[in-house]
Each structure stands twice: as structure tokens, then as C-alpha cells.
Amino acid sequence: MNEYFLGVDGGQSGTTALIGDAAGRIVGWAGSGPCNHVAASEAKAKFLRVMAECIGHAAQCAGLAPDASGAPWRFRSACLGMSGGPDDKDSLLREMIQADHLTVTHDAAIALAGATAGEPGIVVIAGTGSIAFGRNERDETARAGGWGHLFGDEGGAFDIVRKAVHAVLREHEGWGPRTTLTPVLIESTGACDANDMLHRFYTPEWPRSRVAGLARVVDTLAEAGDPAAGDILRRAAQDLAVLAASVRRQLWADTDVVHVSWAGGVFNSSILSERFRMLVQLDGGSLCAAPLHGPAEGALLIAWKNAGIAPVPQSDLYAKQA
Fold first, then answer.
1. Which one of 75, 111, 250, 287 has the fewest beta carbons within 10 angstroms of its own beta carbon?
2. CA distance 269 to 170
3. Higher-confidence residue: 58 or 67?
């Protein structure tokens, strides 16, 4: 009988579920919407719906027959990394999933496992929000950032757009330089002017994830040479490099060689990612390289490890669909 393993990356922008077998093959994959908040009743219902949809589609892709009785999915081992932390989601997930080994953890842990293939190091995550997380050879861990969009998340997509809106409002009120961010962001939001744009961002039609999506607009304008957009991305890269340096100081000596990687859509910006790499490597002893695997694969790696096996991941199916 085949044994299956589940890895889930549950984030602010979307959820990904992977199902693997004991040989390391990823045999099922599915994506769905965000699942990071469950406090309000409607948010809890959305969380359960997203998780059921995502895991169910991955199971269908893997050829796992649904249980007509409605019993929880059964895996040999499962690991789920959740944005916002696992505390408010752990019991809900244990009602949905049965496994000999079931781990519900935070999204930074699975991002690090994926980026370094389970080896010690640091990962800096910049999606909608931001956080840096590290684990050293003694299995000690530390973090920096990740305090949410009101008090932190420096260098994340929402923070990038917030700074772009600041630039637009400064121009609108006559105390900031002209920037192409102004007409492009006004057009992108369907607003008539900067003031209208700002007020739209306070409505339910513009949740945090949708606002964060405008970071791609900032990157496009920075590539086209807009000074304000370029400065925003370079400052974001600096903020993210500072987070990495903070984790390094907490876990390693100055003379240690530390591997640093990244995860999250913000790093799709070549302006930001190139500056981030340069700044990290200026911190002596830090080696910065692209992630070996994504966060969902990191969750699957943890699931395999917790079951006492360490296959070499074979991601052909997932890579073709992702």
C-alpha cells in the first residue's frame, strides 16, 4: 500500500499543498486562496474552505480516492506552515488531517527548510509581509521582523506600496517631487485623483493582499527609471538585509560562514534582489544564494524527516504545474 506525505504552505497571498510519496516524488499539487486569519467567524469558515479545497484538489491530482464517509485525510506524515503562526489553526487542522506525524508550524520554518534543503542558515521572506528566520548547527532558532503591517513588515509588498502611496500623496500636496507613480497608481485603482485613491484603500474592496499586489507596478516603474520607485525598492532591500543581519548576530559568531537565502514574490524584482544580495554579502561571512526549494517543498521535506526518511525531492510534476 502506498504511503503519502503532505506539505502545505499557508500564506497571506495564497495556499499551496503538495503530496509526495516515500520515494521523493511529488505526485499531487494544488493552490488556493490565502488562509492566514481565523479569528472572526467568517475568517474561520474561509480558512476551513480554503484548506479543504487545496488539500482535496492535491489529493485528487495524486489519485487519492475521497473518503465517502467524510473522514479526515490520512497521511503517514504531514507538515503545514501557516502565516501568522500555528496557534489558532492547530486544532482545526487536526480535525481535518490524520497522520502518524503531524506538525503545524509557522511559514518561516518551512521556507527555511526549503531554501536550504534542511540545512542550517537564514531565510528572509518578503511576500505581502516580511520576516527573517534562522536555525544554526545547534538547532537554535531566531527571528527578526514579522510584526504585521501596522508595526512592521518592512520590505514586504504592502510596505512597498505604502511608501509608493506616500510618494504620490506628497506630490499631490505639493511637497514632494513629481513621480510616474502618481498617474499609474491612480489609473491602477480606477481613482480620479490621489485623494480618491487613498480613500479606496480604506474600503473592503482593497484588502491588504490586493494592495500588496501593486508592488509589481512599483517595480515596473523602477525598471523604467522612475527615481522615487527605485529608491523605494532599494530601501526595501536594505530593510530586508538588516533583518538577515539581526538573525545572524543572534545565532552565529562573527567569524562563522552563514548561508542566507530568500523566499516570497518581492524577490522577483531584480532591482531589489540584486541589492539585497550585495548588502547581505557585505556582511562578512554571509553567503547569499537562491533557494533550493520553495516553502511548500520545505514543508514536505519536514514531513519526510519527521517520518524518518530523507528522499531526494523529485519535483518534475510540481514544476510543470506551478
1. 287
2. 25
3. 58
